[in-house]
Design goal:
The chain is of the alpha+beta class. The protein has 2 domains: 178 residues, FAD/NAD(P)-binding domain; 160 residues, D-Amino Acid Oxidase, Chain A, domain 2 (2-Layer Sandwich). The protein is 29% helix and 27% strand. The protein contains 9 helices and 18 strands. Strands 1, 4, 5, 6, 7, 12, 13, 14, 15 and 16 form a 10-stranded mixed β-sheet that branches. Strands 2, 3, 8, 9, 10, 11, 17 and 18 form an 8-stranded mixed β-sheet that branches. Helix 1 runs parallel beside helix 8. The chain starts with a strand and ends with a helix. The mean pLDDT is 96. The chain binds flavin-adenine dinucleotide. The site of flavin-adenine dinucleotide has 39 residues, from helix 1, strand 4, strand 12, strand 16 and helix 8.
Length: 395
């Protein structure tokens, strides 16, 4: 599966990534992580804190999958609104899940503080605006639910938005608990730190086949075999090729990064921006003063020309910020995975003991990966996490 196509921005921000050897011998471990993207790297970093004998293998290089196409917005509000989750799971579970997402941003912040390399992690504010008048009622209901359950948020009416931004929108929710990051640097730095703390990491090492025996799971790679008690599949959207999850949906999405810009007039605090439409446009700025804008999600068989989609994204950017003059420096398309109910698939295989999946599908993938690492660490160590029911694979 070609996870991305085109001219990616983040890999150009790293001069020389740390490299790891290929596996050429047999090994045993307590936990094998398959996949060295954001999910695998966070998981490895967390397990290192618990002194668990962990091996991570990546078939290409660390962070080279969807992680390098990710736009790096870290938000606690999900593709599924809190009020939708309340309808689906009831107040207690839904609010608990939203609080876990909020906490996951703080946890990412804490991990970031332990890293040697700079990852451009920065706390950020976020505007979630109503794409049209019909969405205002639901957005206001969402705001009321956030306030009722103790989340900090401001409700902006159309005048307030016009005072802060150069575009018009009928209403918006403004929050201040978010963050932004260079996801490629972040995954590399987390993996590197995990390796320094004792995790064995191998690149260019692909799992080719497996056998699940009673208390031992055996994985074959080209030049070595790994025996482990637990395995975590952190294999991203490609997982759908060998272990299909019923509620998962893969689409194609598009992103551009502009040339650097001097100023961002009409862009309050350079906040993260997204909207209530589905699919939605989303925007952020970068430390080297570019704008990233993404969207235009479409079915996988609808392969649009990258240049056309890039131009459409640039037009949208100019529509929102007419006084910003810029052009496209990088444009890419990527496969994007979401789920029918907006929640990730994180948990135990329903049939095989010791087999876990960490699939942070959805626009909040990184936050879900952080939350997923916490859930799987607890499942491995204690057999239980209070959120395991919400994110379980069979639902
Ligand atoms: C365009 C775009 C924008 C996004 N924007 C955001 C955003 O703003 N914020 C956010 O939080 N999330 C965002 N996401 C989602 C985010 O990218 C994903 O959640 C995240 O990258 C998932 O990381 P991962 O580690 O699960 O997957 P990946 O990064 O794809 O890593 C999986 C790894 O597994 C490896 N692998 C697969 N099979 C094997 C095997 N058999 N043996 C060994 N290795 C294997 C692959 O090579 C790959 O490197 C975005 C995604 C896209 C595509």
């Amino acid at each position: 599966m070609e996870l991305h196509h085109g001219n990616l921005f983040w890999p150009t921000t790293v001069e020389k990534a740390r490299s790891f050897p290929e596996l050429t011998t047999n090994m045993t471990c307590d936990v094998l992580i398959i996949g060295g993207g954001m999910s695998g790297s966070i998981m490895a970093r967390m397990l290192a804190d618990y002194h668990i004998n962990t091996v991570l293998i990546e078939k290409n290089t660390i962070g080279s999958g969807s992680t390098s196409a990710n736009t790096g917005l870290l938000q606690f509000s999900n593709d599924a609104m809190l009020i939708d989750l309340i309808d689906r799971f009831g107040k207690e579970k839904a609010v608990y899940f939203y609080k876990l997402c909020l906490k996951a941003i703080d946890e990412l912040d804490k991990y970031n503080a332990t890293l040697k390399e700079k990852t451009d992690f920065k706390r950020a504010e976020s505007l979630y605006f109503a794409s049209n008048e019909h969405h205002v009622k639901k957005l206001k209901k969402e705001y009321d639910a956030l306030i009722e359950h103790g989340f900090n948020a401001d409700y902006l009416d159309s005048t307030a938005i016009e005072n802060l931004y150069s575009f018009k929108a009928p209403a918006g929710i403004y929050t201040k608990a978010e963050a932004e990051v260079n996801p490629y640097k972040f995954a590399l730095a987390l993996a590197s730190h995990a390796a320094d703390l004792g995790v064995n990491i191998f690149e260019h090492t692909e799992v080719l086949s497996h056998q699940f025996h009673n208390k031992e799971l055996i994985f074959q790679t080209e030049k070595g075999e790994i025996r482990t008690k637990h395995v975590i599949y952190a294999t991203g959207y490609g997982t759908q090729e060998f272990a299909k999850t019923k509620g998962a949906l893969l689409e194609r999405t598009y992103t551009i990064a502009t040339e650097p810009i001097d100023q961002f007039p009409g862009w309050h605090n350079q906040s993260l921006i997204w909207e209530t439409d589905r699919p939605y446009y989303y925007l952020r700025t970068t430390p080297d003063r570019r704008i990233l804008i993404g969207g235009l999600d479409a079915t996988l068989n609808k392969k649009e020309k990258l240049e056309q989609q890039g131009q459409q994204l640039l037009n949208k950017l100019h529509e929102l910020f007419p006084s910003i003059e810029t052009s496209i420096a990088f444009e890419w398309s990527a496969i994007f995975g979401s789920t029918k109910d907006g929640l990730p698939y994180i948990g135990k295989h329903p049939k095989y003991d010791g087999v876990y999946f960490m699939l942070g599908y959805g626009g909040n993938g990184t936050v879900y990966s952080m939350l997923g690492a916490e859930i799987l660490k607890d499942l491995i160590l204690y057999g239980h996490h209070p959120a395991m029911d919400i994110t379980r694979l069979k639902r």
